[in-house]
Amino acid sequence: MKPTKSLLAATLALTFVATPGLSWSAESQPVAPVRPVTTTYFGTPVVDRYRYMENLSDPEVQSWMKAQAAYTRKVIDSIPDRASLATHIQELMAGDLKRYDFTRRGDRLFYHMLEPGTNLPKLAYRDGVKGEEHVLVDPAKLSTDSAHHFALDWYSPSWDGRYVAYGVSEGGSEKSVLHVIDLQTGSQLQETIDRTSDCFVSWRNDNKSFFYLRYPKAGPDTPPSLSEYNAVTFLHVLGQHTDGEGDEAVFGRGVSASVDVPEGQATYVLLAPDSPYAVAVANHNVDNNPNTFYVARLDQIHGAQTPWKKIATPEDGVTDVRLRGDRLYVLSDKGAPRFQILSTPLAHPDIAHANVVVPESENVLDAFEVASDGMYLGERAGATFELRHVSYDGKDNQPIGLPFAGTVGDLVSDPRSPGLLFSLQGWVKAPRELSYTPGASAATDTGLVPPSKTESDDIEAHDEFATSYDGTRIPVSIIAKKGVTRDGTNPTIVYGYGSYGISMDPSYRPAWQGWIDRGGIIAVAHMRGGGEYGDAWHRAGQKLTKINTMMDFIATAQHMIDERYTQSKYLAANSASAGGIVMGGAMEINPGLFRVILDDVGLSDALRFETEPNGPPNVPEMGSSSNEAGFHGLYAMSAYAHIHDGTPYPAVMFTTGANDPRVAPWHMLKMAARTQAATSSGRPVLLRIDYDAGHGIGSSVSQRANQLADEWSFALWQMGEAGFQPKQ
Hints:
Number of strands: 38
CATH topology of the largest domain: Rossmann fold
Number of helices: 11
Number of domains: 3
Strand order of the largest sheet: 31-32-34-33-35-36-37-38
Low-confidence stretches: 1-26
Structural class: alpha+beta
CATH superfamily of the largest domain: Alpha/Beta hydrolase fold, catalytic domain
CATH class of the largest domain: Alpha Beta
Helix content: 10-25%
Largest sheet: 8 strands, mixed
Shape: globular
């Protein structure tokens, strides 16, 4: 389509008046044409004024996007203290040496490393905790110009620690290309296999071959919703079929007429070095929700002839498994909303009659790993975590002492060796990498992660409870300066997510000091839809009950006002991805509650989500418009469908990455265009686009720092903060 005259003539001139927070004119903002499309769902007509924006390759849409991005850039750059805030945030984010995402192969440790002052993490390894550090992959060296960057997406070492398969992608796209490096020679092998996003690589015991997942090659007629769906598991042998073409498919939908594999985003195979069996997983959304599991002997895996035996469906509630010799250990929430661990023989697996090794308790069983000396369990206990060592028969169950209360995560073990590595962090405590040796009374700090230079004794965190509309108590974590005055004048950001059973566990975010240093408060809402209290808490905030998530978020914001931390004129809401549903509720249910909405890569048009590449895998969480109940749930949570003309909406900044593979950029485009046209408040509604980014995964430190600086400067401007008011 040819760009309209209004788009071609759009000017970036700004007009400011003296009133704080209202010093803005929309007269020069690019205006999107309205071209209504009406779809009737089960008797309910739904009007979509900007459906055409879903065609992101349309020159007119591209022109409007670029004009919006340029306009937003000029507006934000006119805020006086924005640049100094960006510098401060980047110094906080890049000030510490970080090592994380550890994998253990005997004494050899692999991990990501982010050095102070650098933008992107590298892949490194060392032999033993005190061993010399070696850098394997530096994605910064892959870029050929400053406009594009590469990111390390995932990695997987062979069992002997000689080879590492890893994935890199460009511009935050997460479109991984698989490579292999040989540590013995230091050379890159010839392997270059594309379409390996979210890849699970499982090395066989020969240390020269592995199973990996690969997405289907999209043709000219492939619907977008199927381009990143139904990934198939292949077997690869080093040095053979180095581009992946010709590798034998062993598991996946359509691979074998005799094996019924349900539709889903990914399939992959799990192995253990001491087990003669393999477990295949059909995972709907590459998450830890219940999936479908199969078992076969390793020596019987031969392409489409592999005799996979189905052992669990989503109705069995299995979320994670570990193989050990001839037995399978299973994490399940069936009949146990806070999870339990079961055990069954791999030769004749029977989940329904499996032995209960670790029964459900008051804590939420969050994760487990296996080692030669037993199992290690991370348990969520209210606002903090506990770590336990459990024998394989479940009879010996001992707590492991921790140096401080916080989030236990990233459990790392080698099933052939004793002991555990894990991370521990809190809202005001930077991550430590700890280890536990069998027989010790407590875990000890390995020193792999040096002490943080950004921890501050002036900042504290505590938990309170908000009361939602139906009387449900919602935990709220509050992070602020010690002794913060409750006089209603503190700039406050309320964060929340509330989907997929993902919990907002305590995590150290040094960038938050950039907000807190200015007298700000961070409030984290632990809403229904998350996993803070197990599966029941998750299910109470999905599909037809998604309204609970939105109302819990609003209750949290009201709690901050009622407790005199802040007032509406100093209150901002922020979330991302599926949290876009919450941001829609925040601005639409009570438009006067928040002064600012910061919606990052938000899922806004839930009714159309199924049509995009990453849409179908999310149906189990969100529902489908193909049935009436699903439609009503999606319609209720669809922010885009509930914007009304003439409503005084808060100031809003919508952000997206042009390469986003998880939530298509058109969600934010359509939401911005509709809100700009509908609002009557006179407050700005901006669309921020990063053309070298995707969903935020793989973004560099400077990209993340600049986004925070843009959003916080925008919020402080609208809250009337001195130093953030554009010149008249």
